[in-house]
Amino acid sequence: MKEDVCEIDSHNEEAVAEIKKKMLEDEIILNITEGFKAIGDPTRLKILFALSQKELCVCDLASILDMNQSAISHQLRTLRDKNMVKYKKEGKMARYYLADGHVITLIKMGIEHARE
Q: Model's pTM, two decimal places?
């Protein structure tokens, strides 16, 4: 007999109804999981952490992560597609930055959780 499961098939109808009313829409759930997948890659998380410190160009990121620019660009494209980073052109340079404060919050929460 497992200790981590109910031994009888019974549910709290009131609790179930209450949570079902509050349950997120499938589209929202999908967007959240896609966002977590994007930051679930170690290279992309390193990029996001670096960008949480300062705006950087692809060359800077490549040097920081000891990777080639093509690999960094590929990862940045994924992060742009998930609306986690944006860039601005400055002459011939493209400087990347985090799309909004929510990305910083996710990173900080992840760091706190990992250090517990």
A: 0.83
